[in-house]
Amino acid sequence: MDNFQLLTVEQAYKLWQTDNSIVVDIRDRQSFHSAHITGAYHLTNETLNNFITQTDLDTAVMVICYHGHSSQGAAQYLVNTGFETVYSINGGFEVWSREYPHTINSLS
């Protein structure tokens, strides 16, 4: 794959339910810690190298941000580093948390 692909939250949710993918959340630390998708990896500048070295390049990676814009740049970066299947989730965490609140780990 030369470029990432866009997924709707519905498509991403279906893929998330399988064991064939990982969600990476690129939102800021405070937002991630207050609420995130169960099992999501918090991808930051500090965790990027570990993620790249510890994750199989053939793992499907779904990138999520607040609204689905910043995740596109991060998704393309992961493609450029060698990941074979990378998606950006349209609508981001805002839409996901509204549509699938039962999947969210939250401090509240």
TrEMBL record:
Domain Rhodanese positions: 17-105
Top-rank taxon: Bacteria
Keywords (A to Z) from UniProt: Cytoplasm, Transferase
Reactions performed catalytically: thiosulfate + hydrogen cyanide = thiocyanate + sulfite + 2 H(+); thiosulfate + [thioredoxin]-dithiol = [thioredoxin]-disulfide + hydrogen sulfide + sulfite + 2 H(+)
EC number: 2.8.1.1
Catalytic residues as annotated in Swiss-Prot or TrEMBL: 65
InterPro entries referenced in this protein's UniProt entry, alphabetically: GlpE_sulfurtransferase, Rhodanese-like_dom, Rhodanese-like_dom_sf, Thiosulf_sulfurTrfase
Subcellular localization: Cytoplasm
SUPFAM superfamilies: Rhodanese/Cell cycle control phosphatase (SSF52821)
Pfam family, one: Rhodanese
GO annotation, cellular component aspect: cytoplasm
Gene3D superfamilies: Rhodanese-like domain
Presence of the UniProt keyword Ribosomal protein in the record: no
PROSITE patterns: RHODANESE_3
MF terms (GO), sorted A to Z: thiosulfate-cyanide sulfurtransferase activity
Function (record text): Transferase that catalyzes the transfer of sulfur from thiosulfate to thiophilic acceptors such as cyanide or dithiols. May function in a CysM-independent thiosulfate assimilation pathway by catalyzing the conversion of thiosulfate to sulfite, which can then be used for L-cysteine biosynthesis.
Protein family per UniProt: Belongs to the GlpE family.
Protein name: Thiosulfate sulfurtransferase GlpE
